[in-house]
Structures are given as C-alpha cells and as structure tokens.
C-alpha cells in the first residue's frame, strides 16, 4: 500500500519543493492506512516535507547565485543540467544484457549529443560571437569561418554517426539497436529544444528566463500547499496525489504572483537588458518601453481613506499574466506526460541525483513545456520584429565582411536620402503646380 | 530459399529500376538455386526486370511532366509523396488489437502531421506568399499577420495534440501509446526534414532539386545494371544483393573527370548532366513568388560558361581547341560523389530497419517496387545534403553587396528598410565603441 503510494506520485517537477516519499525512507507500518492516496491523509508528510524543503533551499540558493553571476554562467548551468538529463535518459531504457554485445554503442549516443550541442549553440551564438571577437583578426577569421560552415560541419558529424550506426548493426540485435537509435533522437530533441529556447531567451534578458521558471516553481509550491491543506478531489488518474483544489488554488496564486513578480523583477537592469555579446561585465541599457512604468489613476475605484491614488504598472506585467495563465494550466501537462511515461515503462524515478526529489528530469519536465512557450511568446508578442528583417540582417552579418557591411550601410543611407529628396522635390513641384 | 532472396532484397530506392522479387511472383522451383543471393545468379531476373522497367518508365515520365509544369506543381508532388509516405509509415507498426481500444488515436497522428505541414511550409513559403500578394494592400496585411503569428499557431496546435494525447492515456496501454507517440514524432521528423529541404531547394531553382534526385536515380540504375551482369562480391551483410562491382563502377563514373575533362571524353556522367541542365533558364532561375508563369532571370555567375583553353592538353588533330564548362559542374561533382558513396547508406538504414521489425516492404503502392518509402529512402539523405551544400557553398558564393541590396529594396517595405538601417547603424556604433 505504501509502495503504491510511492509509485503514484505527483511528478510536477521544478527545482524546488516536492513531497514524494522514496520507498526506502518510509517505515512499512504506515502501509496499513486507509488506502487513500491524497496527501492530506498522509501521516508522514511533515517529516518528508522537511527533507524536501532542505534540498529545495539549497537548489534555490544556488540558482540565485548563478542569476547574480550573469548570462554566461546561466548558460553554463543550462548546459550542465542538459548533460545530466541526457545521461539519465540515455541510461533509462538500456538493457545491460544487450549492451555487453555492443561495444561503443554508448559512445554513439554522446556523439549525437555533441553534434546537437554544436548545432544548437552554434546558431544562437553566431551573432553573439561575431560581436565579441572583433578585436583579434586571426581568431575572428577562424571563428567566423567555423560559424559560416556550421551547418555543413554539423551535418557531416551527424552523417558520420549515422554511418557508424549502420556499420555496427549486429544480427539479432537490430530491433534493440533501432529502438535505441530512435530513443536517442527523441531524448536529444526534447532536451535540446527546450535548452536552446532557454538560452535564446537568456540573451534577450534574464527576465525572460527567470520569470517563466519562477512561475513554474510558484505554481508547484502553491498547488502543493493547497493540496496539503485542502485537497479532496483527485484531478487525473495519472497522478493520484494531485487534486482539483490544489490545481485551482495554485492557478490563482500563480497568476497573482506573476503580476507582482513582473513588477519587482522589471526594475533591475541586470535582468531586463539584453546581452549582445559574450562579456560578463555589468549591463547598462535603455530600458525597453515594456519596462517603463505607466501610471493609472485610481480615483473612482477606491474609497477616500485609501492612501495610494494611482498605481504604476509596467506594461510587461500584462505579458506576465499570460505567462502565469499558461504556467498554471498547461505546463502541468508536462508533468502528467512524465508521470504517464514512468508508469508505461514501470520506472519510479528518472534518476536519483537529487536527494529527496528524484532525478534532474523529474525537476525539469514542466520547465521544458514552459521554456518553449516563453520563447515563442516572446518572439511573437513581445518583440515587434519582422521575419524578413531578421533574415536579411542575419545574411548580412554572416556573409559579408566588415568592409562590405559598411559599404552596404553607406549605400542604403544614400538611397534613403535620394528617396527623401525625390519625394520632397515632387511634392514641391506638385505644390507649385 | 527464394523467400529469403526476396526478403533480403536491395533496398536502394530510387523512383526507377530496382529488381527485387516479390514472393508471390516467383515460382518456387527457382528456389533450388545454389543458395546464392546475388542477382547475377537469379534465373528469373530478366522477367522481373521487365516488370520493373515498365513501372520505372511511367514514373520517370510523370516526373518529367511535372518538372515541365513548374515549381508549384513540383511542390504539390512533394506534398502528395509525403502524405503517402506518412500513411505507409503510420500503418507500419500499428497493432490492430490495441487500436480497437483506442478510438481517435489515428486522428492524433494526422493532427500532428497537419501541424508539422503548417509549420514547415509556413516558414518556407512565407516570403514568397508575401511577394505574391504585394499588389493587394488588404491581403498583404492579412498575410503579414498570419506569418507573424505562424509560430504561435503551430505551437498551440502542437500543445493541443499533446494535451489530447495525455487525456486519452488508458490504463494498461501506456506503453503502446507512448511507443506510438514516439514513432509518430520520428516519422514526421524524417518525412518533413527532407521535404522541407527539398521544397526550399526547388524555389532556389529547379536545378538544385533535379540534379541531386537524378544523381540518386542514375547511381541506383548504374549500380544495379553493373551488379546485374558482373556482380560477384557482396558489399554489406544488410543488403546481400549489393555488390562491390556495382559500387566501384559508379565511383569510376564519378572519378573520371580530372584527367579527361574534354567535353566529348567527359565520361563523368554527373558533370555532363549538370552541363545540360545548366543551360535551361526554367531550371536555373529562382522563383520569388508563387506564380506559375514563365521565368526570366539573369543566370548567376555559376551558370555562365567559362572557356578553358585546351591547346596544351590535346594532340594536333583534335578539332576542339577549347572547352566550355559551367562553374556549377564542379559543384555537381561534389554532389555526385556524395550521391555515390554516402546516399546508399539511407538504403542500408531502411534495409536494416525492415529486418529489425521483420517487414518485407514499407507498403505496396508501386507495382513491382514496393512502397513509396522504399523509393525515397536514399532521396531523403540526398535532399538534406543538397540543401545544406547549397546554403553553405553555393549561396555564400553568390552573396555580394549588390545582391543583398537588391533583396532589401525588393523584399522589404519602406518601414522595414528604415528599421534595418537603424539596426545596422546601432550595430556599427556598438562595434566601434567596443574597439575603442
């Protein structure tokens, strides 16, 4: 019974509090409870809450330290998390028996991992690197040459892995090998999509990384506490410990805190300025119009004694509301997916890196759904850019040398001047006539 | 024995000749052969060669017709091929027993297919769509908005499918459902990567689609015919019918160039093909919008013939004193090398896959050949390479200040041009600031 309770655990992961018992921690005499899976009825919950809270505190502390250190370090943290996630997932469906007959097969996984990393980060960093390395001529040429042919290099690395895979196909192991190949691809896609979007967001401003991640955390903690104290109605068969009360309470709390948190975070230029290169120094920039406070007078809405006569709202807080809504309603499905996956393959946890919680993937599953959404939301609604302009800008940066770019710039300037002259002269002539 | 012959068949697909016997066509008495899998020893090969050649001719004919009709029709053909491939592959690992308990699960596959199609073609065609509707102000705004929110739309469609999947998870069927979900994703990635790259290439100029596809076909036919008559040594355990003789012949075709680059002595089939194709504007001009009319353009420097003087190389009696070579032929050489050496691995992959899951063919749409996926597996590897090669080596060469300026003036509105100008200026100032 207790073991059942352990298996049917809520999988919403975040790097924070999650109450889930591990089967070797709980004494078996509690197994004679009423068979209810809800957290409200768990006797041992207070004890495990402390264990969980302790490791959560450490994780949050470490996270804040890295945010303080800056963009590059956050990126490094994402890369490290990725490597651990990939390792957990690669190991998950491996069978020791077959692996003995296939030497070097594990290496193939890491080869594809390295190729994916080169591909994803090469694209993101191409612009950043170009801006950083303008000082040293030789190094600049080398790096820009690499970036120019990045697609070809990654492609040939992939083809090499593909050919290696085919040449090592062994009779009677075909099915296992193809299964592992497909599994590797799925893992890499899942891991790298979300991390590439996260890194893309980081360089637009830490705010766009910090806010979504925090919302998931807050949603998880809030849903947990509401379920802890008020939970009665189960939410979904996949996760018996989740309840409707927790879900709704968590949603409300998340949306409200999204609004408030955006206001707080929006006042720090360290968080809101985009990073255009790979330096680690202090950031100064013109705050985006999104982060300039707008004042709304409250005269008709509040009674006479209310001290504040107007509130200042950053426009970005409305965006935060949307993000909060998504985080509370749709992001938990990432957790359900992971939960269903674990049941399908009869595994309890993705790994055991984090004491009291599980593996890294257990913490990151909701974050993944959120990261993708945050990036897409940002690209579509926050940044008023046009696809064509970006495309051509990329072409210019990638294919032309500095001198050619300057020449292009001068010519464009000339054309604009001529256009204006032409317009003014034609308007003058029409005026005269 | 004969059944073994048929299952361990040549999987190098091309929409052309492939001699593989289907088990229900071959009479069992031929099975008392010496157990040798090689094609050279198959008694019935001449008969099946005719069946194959017949459907091949039809396929080539249809293909040539579509090329003549133009870019939009080629695109439509690619889409149709995709749909059939996806359908074959979706059906492949489905188990009917579980499916009866999961109504609407098949629909989920097609939902993801539709989302992928919207995503992939939306990106590729967005610019061309904008160019087509430019004269009409209202449509232009509408299309512009659609393109801007294209990513969000596709994302929400995907999330809807994702949530649908989770809400329909049934107890005791989890493993099957997750397996199907992963399988669906893999199929869609494989099918759409290659078709996205193919379509992107088409609009750069039919030449960049036609040349790689033809190279695969030629490679396959040549290796087949050579193996048919002379093949003795098996190449790889996965495909017992492929032989070293076939591979070497094809490599010979490719290699015969540097030493004999005279036009008539040019036994390099690939380069000759590129030479012929490069002279048609219909094939070499990029299509900037979605119209179907005739195309005129300035052929890029790649397609202008260069004349090489041959006086030092040839004896006195030789009538031609110089050779005209299109620079694009050197590119064709690289592409041809890839097609002969690496593209067949796509075939080996499909072959191994079929053995792993004990299936004989991916489908049976094409009589005498198999399914559409059987034809397309090498094409897929080639299409991705052709696009990557084109983006990295061909386009980069043809990018100059004038070209980009022309693009800017043609494709962007006045506001966007100003925007670009401002952004460029900002970048330059930042760069100068950092350098000082």
Automatic annotation (TrEMBL), chain A:
What stretches pass through the bilayer?
57-86, 107-126, 146-169, 181-200, 206-231, 243-265, 316-338
Cofactor needs: Mg(2+)
A biological process from GO:
CDP-diacylglycerol biosynthetic process
**Its membrane topology:** Multi-pass membrane protein
- The name under which this protein is listed is Phosphatidate cytidylyltransferase
According to its UniProt entry, the function of this protein is described as:
May be involved in the synthesis of minor phospholipids and in modulation of IP3-mediated signal transduction.
The record's comment on cofactor binding reads: Requires a divalent cation for activity.
Automatic annotation (TrEMBL), chain B:
According to the record, how does the cofactor bind?
A: Requires a divalent cation for activity.
Q: So what does this one do?
A: May be involved in the synthesis of minor phospholipids and in modulation of IP3-mediated signal transduction.
Recite the UniProt keywords alphabetically.
Answer: Lipid biosynthesis, Lipid metabolism, Membrane, Nucleotidyltransferase, Phospholipid biosynthesis, Phospholipid metabolism, Transferase, Transmembrane, Transmembrane helix
* GO terms under cellular component: membrane
Tell me one GO biological process term: CDP-diacylglycerol biosynthetic process
What is its cofactor?
Mg(2+)
Pathway as given in its UniProt record: Phospholipid metabolism; CDP-diacylglycerol biosynthesis; CDP-diacylglycerol from sn-glycerol 3-phosphate: step 3/3; Lipid metabolism
The reaction(s) this protein catalyses: a 1,2-diacyl-sn-glycero-3-phosphate + CTP + H(+) = a CDP-1,2-diacyl-sn-glycerol + diphosphate
Regions that span the bilayer? 49-68, 105-126, 146-169, 181-200, 206-231, 328-350
Q: Where is the composition biased (Polar residues)?
A: 1-10
Q: Which family does it belong to?
A: Belongs to the CDS family.
- Coiled-coil spans in chain: none
Keyword Transmembrane helix in annotation: yes
Q: Known EC number(s)?
A: 2.7.7.41
Q: Which GO terms describe its molecular function?
A: phosphatidate cytidylyltransferase activity
Keyword Transcription in annotation: no
Cellular compartment(s): Membrane
The name of this protein is: Phosphatidate cytidylyltransferase
Its membrane topology: Multi-pass membrane protein
For region Disordered, the annotated ranges are 1-36
Top-rank EC class of the record's enzyme:
transferase
């Amino acid at each position: 019974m207790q073991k059942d309770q352990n298996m049917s655990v809520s999988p919403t992961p975040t790097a924070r509090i999650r109450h889930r018992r591990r089967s070797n921690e709980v004494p078996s005499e509690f197994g004679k409870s009423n068979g209810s899976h809800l957290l409200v009825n768990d006797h041992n919950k207070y004890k495990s809450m402390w264990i969980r809270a302790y490791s959560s505190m450490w994780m949050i502390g470490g996270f804040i330290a890295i945010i303080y250190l800056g963009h590059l370090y956050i990126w490094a943290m994402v890369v490290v998390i990725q490597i651990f996630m990939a390792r957990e997932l690669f190991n998950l469906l491996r069978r020791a028996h077959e692996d003995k007959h296939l030497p070097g097969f594990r290496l193939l996984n890491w080869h594809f991992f390295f190729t994916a990393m080169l591909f994803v980060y090469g694209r993101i960093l191409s612009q950043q690197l170009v801006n950083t390395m303008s000082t040293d001529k030789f190094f600049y040429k080398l790096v820009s040459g690499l970036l120019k042919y990045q697609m070809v290099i990654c492609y040939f690395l992939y083809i090499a892995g593909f050919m290696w895979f085919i040449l090592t196909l062994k009779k009677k192991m075909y099915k296992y090998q193809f299964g592992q190949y497909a599994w590797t691809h799925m893992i890499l896609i899942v891991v790298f999509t979300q991390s590439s979007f996260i890194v893309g967001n980081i360089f637009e401003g830490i705010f766009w990384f910090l806010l979504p991640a925090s919302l998931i955390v807050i949603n998880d903690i809030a849903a947990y506490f509401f379920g802890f104290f008020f939970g009665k109605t189960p939410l979904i068969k996949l996760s018996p410990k989740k309840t409707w009360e927790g879900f709704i309470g968590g949603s409300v709390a998340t949306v409200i805190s999204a609004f408030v948190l955006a206001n707080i975070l929006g006042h720090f230029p360290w968080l809101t300025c985009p990073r255009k290169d790979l330096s680690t120094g202090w950031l100064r920039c013109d705050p985006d119009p999104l982060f300039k406070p707008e004042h709304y007078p409250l005269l008709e809405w509040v009674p006479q004694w209310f001290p504040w006569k107007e509130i200042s709202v950053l426009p970005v807080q409305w965006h935060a509301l949307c993000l909060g809504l998504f985080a509370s309603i749709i992001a938990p499905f990432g957790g359900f997916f992971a939960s269903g996956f674990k049941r399908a393959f009869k595994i309890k946890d993705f790994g055991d890196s984090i004491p009291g919680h599980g593996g890294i993937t257990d913490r990151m599953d909701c974050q993944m759904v959120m990261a993708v959404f945050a990036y897409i939301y940002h690209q579509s609604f926050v940044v008023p850019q046009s696809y064509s302009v970006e495309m051509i800008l990329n072409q210019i940066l990638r294919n032309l040398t500095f001198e050619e770019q300057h020449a292009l710039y001068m010519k464009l300037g000339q054309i604009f001047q001529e256009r204006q002259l032409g317009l003014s002269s034609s308007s003058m002539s029409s005026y005269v006539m | 024995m004969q059944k073994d012959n048929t299952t361990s068949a040549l999987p190098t697909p091309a929409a052309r000749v492939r001699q593989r016997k289907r088990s229900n066509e071959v009479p069992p008495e031929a099975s008392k052969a010496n157990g040798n899998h090689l094609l050279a020893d198959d008694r019935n090969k001449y008969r099946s060669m005719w069946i194959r050649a017949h459907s091949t001719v039809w396929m080539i004919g249809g293909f040539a017709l579509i090329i003549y009709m133009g870019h939009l029709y080629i695109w439509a053909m690619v889409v149709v091929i995709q749909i059939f491939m996806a359908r074959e592959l979706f059906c492949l690992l489905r188990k009917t027993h579980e499916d009866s308990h999961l109504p609407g699960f098949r629909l989920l596959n097609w939902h993801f297919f539709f989302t992928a199609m919207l995503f992939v073609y939306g990106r590729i065609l967005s610019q061309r769509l904008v160019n087509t509707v430019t004269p009409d102000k209202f449509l232009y705004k509408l299309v512009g908005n659609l393109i801007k929110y294209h990513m969000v739309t596709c994302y929400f469609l995907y999330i809807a499918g994702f949530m649908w999947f989770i809400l329909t998870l049934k107890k005791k069927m989890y493993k099957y459902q997750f397996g199907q979900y992963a399988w669906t994703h893999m199929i869609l990635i494989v099918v759409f990567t290659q078709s996205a790259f193919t379509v992107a290439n088409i609009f750069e100029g039919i030449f960049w689609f036609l040349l790689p596809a033809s190279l695969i076909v030629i490679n396959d036919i040549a290796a087949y015919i050579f193996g048919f008559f002379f093949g003795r040594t098996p190449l790889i355990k996965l495909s017992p019918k492929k032989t070293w003789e076939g591979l070497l012949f094809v490599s010979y075709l490719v290699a015969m160039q540097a030493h004999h680059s005279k036009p008539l002595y040019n036994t390099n089939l690939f380069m000759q093909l590129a030479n012929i194709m490069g002279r048609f504007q219909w094939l070499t001009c990029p299509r900037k919008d979605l119209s179907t009319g005739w195309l005129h353009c300035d052929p890029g420097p790649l397609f202008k013939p260069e004349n090489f003087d041959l006086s030092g190389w040839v004896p006195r009696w030789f009538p031609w004193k110089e050779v005209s070579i299109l620079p694009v032929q050197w590119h064709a050489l690289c592409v041809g090398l890839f097609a002969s050496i690496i593209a067949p691995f796509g075939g080996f992959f499909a072959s191994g896959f079929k053995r792993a899951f004990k299936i004989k063919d991916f489908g049976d749409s094409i009589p005498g050949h198999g399914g559409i996926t059987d034809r397309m597996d090498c094409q897929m590897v080639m299409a991705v390479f052709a696009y990557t090669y084109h983006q990295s080596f061909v386009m980069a060469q043809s990018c100059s200040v004038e070209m980009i300026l022309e693009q800017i003036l043609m494709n962007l509105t006045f506001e966007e041009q100003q925007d670009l100008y401002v952004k460029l200026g900002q970048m330059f100032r930042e760069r100068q600031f950092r350098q000082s």
